[in-house]
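User: quick one, fold this
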Amino acid sequence: MKENDENHMKHLLKHALPPVGHAEPVRDLWPAMLRRMDEHPAAPPWLDWVLACGVAIFAVVFPTVVPVFLYYL
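Assistant:
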């Protein structure tokens, strides 16, 4: 009974999943990626700078908290 269930499951899986034909891309994608990166340059990470300045200001205002932050890093 168990072997019959396994064979049935194999049969269902073979029919449910399409066969993988060509796993490689049809063309080279790297030149297109470089072109896309040149078209849209990365925006400056303003949120990162805001958070870093906030942490720096917090460390200046409350210097006793710095060891606590370092402990949790």
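User: anything notable?
Assistant: Residues 45-73 form one domain.
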